[in-house]
Design goal:
This protein is an all-beta fold. It has no helices and eleven strands. Helix content is 0%, strand content 52%. The strands form two sheets. Strands 2, 4, 5, 6, 9, 10 and 11 form a seven-stranded mixed β-sheet that branches. Strands 1-3-8-7 form a four-stranded antiparallel β-sheet, with no helix packed on it.
Length: 124
């Protein structure tokens, strides 16, 4: 089993920045793909970004490309999501996920483990 714990959410003004963290523990694998998703109340969960624990492959949703950056610190078993130039439409619960299917990394079906989420609220 893998446990994922997100942190770093909060309330920010439009144009501000936040860095989310996802700390992984348990039976993690270097072959895992790590993803970030978000979900606003009443809306479907949407893909934000993904990367491998190892290697350099990354994916970004068009809505965040150029503003968000996914990164990792393997020694700390932690994945980060740096969010810059935040917009009110970025307001959502943000979830990290771990899975073993890079080819499905941009969909929630590619992941086996999910964190509890951290709330990001961007005020106008």
């Amino acid at each position: 089993q893998v446990q994922l714990v997100e942190s770093g959410g909060g309330l920010v003004q439009a144009g501000g920045s936040l860095r989310l963290s996802c700390a992984a523990s348990g039976r993690t694998s270097s072959n895992y793909v790590m993803g970030w998703f978000r979900q606003a109340p009443g809306k479907e969960r949407e893909f934000v970004a993904a990367m491998m624990w190892s290697g350099s492959s990354t994916y970004y949703a068009d809505s965040v490309k150029g503003r968000f950056t996914i990164s990792r610190d393997n020694a700390k078993n932690t994945v980060y999501l740096q969010m810059n130039s935040l917009k009110p439409e970025d307001t959502a619960g943000y979830y990290c996920a771990a899975g073993g299917n890079w080819y499905l990394a941009r969909g929630d079906g590619g992941y086996d483990y999910w964190g509890q989420g951290t709330q990001v609220t961007v005020s106008s």
